[in-house]
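Pilot study result, target chain (506 residues):
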Amino acid sequence: MRRKSLTWVGWIALFFLAAWLRLNNLESTPIHADEATGAKILSQRIEGTGYNFDPKHYHGPFPSLVAESIARLSGETSWVDLSLFTLRLGSVIAGLLTVMSPLLWAKTVGVVPALAAAACLASSPLLVYYNRIYIHESWLLLFGIITLAALHRLYARKNLPMAIISGISIGLLFAIKESFVLSILAWAGSATLLLVIHRPKLRLHRLRPQSLTLVFLLVLASFGTSSYFYSDGFRNLQGIIDSCKTYIDYETAPGHEKNFSYYLHFLLWPKKTVGTLWTEITVFALAAIGLWRTGKERKSGSIGIFLATATLLHWILYSCIAYKTPWLMLLPWGHVCLLAGLAFYNYQTLSLTQRRSLLLLFIGSIGWQIVQSREATGTYANDERNPYAYVATSRDARKIPEWIQQIQALPEASIRQNNRIAVIGKQYWPLPWFLRDFREVEYHPIPNKSLADYSIVFALPEQNTACDARLDKSHDKFLKSLRSNVPVSIYLQKDLAKAWYQTNPQ
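Predicted structure:
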């Protein structure tokens, strides 16, 4: 009874640790460009203008559907009303549920390994940082772990309910993001390896009709679930077709091409750029111990080999794709955290020295991860030297609304009938988020003929030269930072600029 109580105390403590790391000052980091894009999609839902999946530019509809419910509960019903806290809360919830997800494995691997895995998930700076941002990968990680648990139970029990649950889980993965197919390939490869190891004489003709029925139900449930979300509740059947077209039509943004070893360097190689020493290699070391500890046993060894192989295949598949971003590693790294928990499998069979050494490594790893998580989401949250702050939004951008309000409050601006704002260029996100309180804002890929008539003009780098030529005589130019290594030029009409200089001589 005492041991059971201590176990629940451990789970509760981990939940509150995870909540503290993910919720503390949640709105302090400026909105990321991808978040702002997602927020605009969300606004279409909450404003009732309808949702249509775009196979060229956007991912699955599930996260925005969850965010819609949160926004409505918060009383936020428009693009202007949306708050960062509401926008990010869905990812936080997904992260907290992910920390609790090893409970699904507790009966299989033991309570202590499950708790250890949860501690790794709770404190990982990679997971903490991106659980605080409105992106799809937090949900992908959660349902990835749920899907693994469901498939494991389906393999063990072979019953209809588990086939349907597994299918729904896979369908939700698709409804979250199209990249789920990489995980399916990695899991299929891992399962194939286990079949080769444990059942070398398996033949297709030995598969029973019941197994084929279960597979059919799994596929049907998966297709039905994903179709429901992509078609907006079967109201737009074109969405089902578009969900398949995304594998052909999807257009990735330029500038994210990395070399093959990027993910290894990002997660494992120690980096002293700013603040602490950035690396998650100690959890990787625990995962290696977990594989070694379980490798000799049939049941636990299968799980260990599966997780290790799936991690390796995920890394290979993602590394072969030129387009790379840190958040794509959330689901693969979730496998590593689960495997790290297995370092404590049957820990009572270890010698006293081995147990003490393992516990010391574990405590040191979790403590180091917490320090990194705090620095990654605190002081250095949007510092480009922080390896997790990828293409971070500048704090300059956050000050733009206040600056425009001050400009428009000038007497010279208040007597005007025209206080229009123009944004020139294509890669302007997250600028629309900061300009959403202003009514007269227009977006143009290139300068238009009446550019000099706008009170304020924002120009992205590719349009600087053209805007300089058009606005040299009518506007004064200010240089600000929009995102990491992405400046934005702001042109202010000369009479407003003169008045601004008089009120702000610095």
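One observation from the pilot: Residues 206 and 220 are 23 Å apart (CA to CA). A full batch analysis is planned for the follow-on phase.
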